Amino acid sequence: EAIAAYQRAIELDPKLAYRHNGLGNVYQAQSRYEEAIAAYQRAIELDPKLSWPYNNLADIYLIRSEFDLAAQYYRQRIDLEAETALNAHINMGIIARHQGDNLGAADWFQKALALCDSPRGSAYLSKAGALENQAIALLCLGRRAEALAALREAIAVKLPGDIFKPIRYTLLRTAPHPPEGLEEMIALLQAAKVLPDPLP
């Protein structure tokens, strides 16, 4: 029904980029990635300054382990609106960590923590989403106790629509040197039924 509604809205005015982005979101939620990619790319063609399609494309490429493309689109998202790109900063850090670049990862996670403390840094995230991002950054910077406290708070305030993405934890787990406390973090999320057990 959502796809049909977006398609009808696009028929009425095919030049509104955010409608194509919305259609892409529905396709992505159904794991129809090729259709989602096409919708996001159309949104970018129509409005290259709309930041969300870049982030959404990057998320798909992250899921598909196409890290160079994921990083390219996260960077474009950050270039357009760095002060609200907390997810993109965290995911860039995860990519760097997964690829063994711990110094580069630390830089991304430090920037992410600064966004957590800024008024606009978590503007597009739920309280639980912002806390989960903070927890990942803290954990990857070696601040295990603070990370676990932030994660427990994220679980406590999670609303039904909040989604924690398993790919982030899978990539950290398969990194050359997984951060200390990661397995405890995953166990907390799985016990709260926030992440699947086992991780994909």
Describe this structure in words.
This protein is an all-alpha fold and 200 residues long. Helices cover 70% and strands 0% of the residues. Helix 1 runs antiparallel to helix 2, helix 2 runs antiparallel to helix 3 and helix 3 packs antiparallel against helix 4. The protein is globular. The mean pLDDT is 95.
Layout: helices, strands, pairs:
Blueprint: H1 2-12, H2 17-29, H3 33-46, H4 52-63, H5 67-81, H6 86-98, H7 102-116, H8 127-140, H9 144-157, H10 166-173, H11 182-191
Give a quick set of tags describing it:
11 helices; 200 residues
Low-confidence stretches are: none
- CA radius of gyration is 17 Å
DSSP summary, beta strand count: 0
Question: Helix amount, in percent?
Answer: 55-70%
Outline type: globular
**Which class do the helix and strand fractions yield?**
mainly alpha
How can the largest sheet be summarized?
none
Helical region count? Answer: 11
Give the overall average pLDDT: 95
Order of helices and strands: HHHHHHHHHHH
Percent strand: under 5%
Distance between the termini: 28 Å
